[in-house]
Design a protein that fits this description.
The complex is a heterodimer.
Chain A (H helix, E strand, L loop, with lengths): L5 H26 L7 H25 L7 H30 L4 H28 L7 H31 L5 H26 L3 H27 L13 H14 L3
Helix pairs in contact in A: 1-2, 1-7, 2-3, 3-5, 3-6, 4-5, 5-6, 6-7
Chain B lengths: L1 H23 L7 H9 L3 H8 L1 H10 L2 H37 L4 H33 L11 H24 L1
The chains are: A mainly alpha, B mainly alpha.
Amino acid sequence: MLPFTWHKVLFLFLWISPHVLLGVLVVVFCKRRLYREFPCFLAYVLFEIAEFILMFTLYIFALYSVLSATANQYAYAYYATLMFSLVLRFGVINEVSKDLFRESQFLKVAARRSLQCITGLLLAMGVALAVYAPGDISVKWVAGASVVTRGAALVQCGLLLTLLLFSRFLGLTWRRPAFGITLGLGVLTSVNLAIYALRAEFTNRVGAAFLNFLATGTYLVCVSIWIGYLLAPEPQPASLAVVPHDEVETWNTELQHLLRD
Amino acid sequence: MIAAWTLVAVAFFALAILVYVAIRSRTRLVDLEKAVQAFRSLDIEAFRNLLDSAEEAFLRDNLSPKKFREIKRQRAWAALIYAWEAGRAATALAKIGQAAQRSSDPKIAASGVQVAESAFRLRLQTVRACPHLLTEILLPDLQSRSLPPLVDQYERAAETLFRLGRFSSIERRS
């Protein structure tokens, strides 16, 4: 048995606990039948749990040298699952944007067109970043994967931020689950963006360990946000403030003045 | 290395915005009166005058080039403030419309849809108008291009708000 140091215990706690919470999230999600509106998010959560089981098994095997599992195999599996996870995240962003613009026919067309333009712009930035700042990783395929993950994080972070700013700017009302998903994913992608950028530059052991702590800690925060917003009751729809009757008449008259016949 | 630190800065800036939006996203009472006051505060005739191309042509013909540039800058700046305020009023109106959409009264709900759609259109038109007006401030000698039909949209939005106010007052009376 290998000795457990405090940082190993902390690392294992930060790695395991979000995935246990994801299991709770799936139960809450299914109870509230939210899978009908956010099927991609459910698929993403289930994939994250499956990915954790695979990676944790490989980690244990590599740690105790069982079935000749190596650190290299772990790295291959890590990047392969990460790529799939990134694709699913795009699906989740598409789902929350559809939910945000659900009530307006006009916005479904106009805002989605703007979002497409912004996606194009962010993609161009991601490609430029890959070309001009490829990072300092010696292993070729890891360098390639790192460039892709960094670019994807940039695009996703930008899209989620745009959605949140759009909603404030246009006065759009979020539903609680969609807002929670967006906020959690936004926190995750923004911190991931910083982590992927630093990982490409700082390849030493201490730096990598610190970034791992940061990544797993952020994931725990993100899952807690999702669960918090899912468990919180949906707020009462905002009601129109009661205006005294005589005042209603006054402003009706004022508005009639405003409208030139 | 610079790129990495730039990305870290971008990421933390994004995180700060996310936290700000999360804190500010508390549900607030949608105040119909405030939205009406926002609409009332704009002098629509003055706004129309500021965007009138005939008025601009008259000024161009009758003022010295230097004076014209000065006046045009001031007009464009005033129009920009008007457009900004109209945009803010549109945001308030959109919230009213969405709240009304959830009303149990089908008339108010239908009117709410119209109010919200009208508000979204107005908001986007104010956004399109702002770069036009900024260009006019920076380059007053340029011939003004036609602005989006901002004033017409503003009036349409006000009309839908009026209709919603009428339904709401009827509902409260009954």
